[in-house]
Amino acid sequence: MGRKNCLVKISGDMLNNKTFTFIKKLSLKYFVAICIGGGTQINRAFKEAGLPIRKFGLLGRATPTLEERLLSYNILSKNQAEIQDRLADLGIYVAVEIPMDNVATVLCPQNGDYFIIKSYHGYDLLYVVTVKKKVKEKQEFFNQFQRKRGKIRVIGF
Length: 157
Fold this sequence. Notes:
The protein is an alpha/beta fold. The chain has a single domain (about 5-155), classed as Acetylglutamate kinase-like (Carbamate kinase), CATH 3.40.1160. It is about 40% helix and about 25% strand. It is built from 5 helices and 9 strands; from the N terminus they run E-H-E-H-E-E-H-E-E-E-H-E-H-E. The chain has helices spanning about 15-30, 40-50, 65-90, 110-120, 135-145, and strands at about 5-10, 30-35, 55, 60, 95, 100-105, 105-110, 125-130, 150-155. A hairpin with a 2-residue loop joins strand 3 (about 55) and strand 4. Helix 2 crosses helix 3 (about 65-90). The longest helix has 24 residues, at about 65-90. It is globular.
């Protein structure tokens, strides 16, 4: 039987050495895939572009225009490249995904937390890395989806 697998959703605000050390430790035991977010960076880019910053709904940020979807995609792709490069520099090789689907050529951004949920059945273990102040809120959110407590683990640095 092959190695167990682990999916880690990382907030775009958490691209730091503590997170990278955590990923390195995981990668010694698991095949690791990462879903990288970018909400704070997307908000900043929307503000700079004069686009509305909409409240997050149940499924995340609404992006009704192509301009909004492309800007979101570009920010997430930049974060994806950054984390891949920084981890590779540390000798850590993992798969990095962004929370966006391309459905019949239409970009469909999604909340990274739902990326974890839709991947639940394929992974042995799922982590959500966020800022400390959001740990309790996110754990309560994920508890409603878990059949087995502890499969989705929320940690904050």
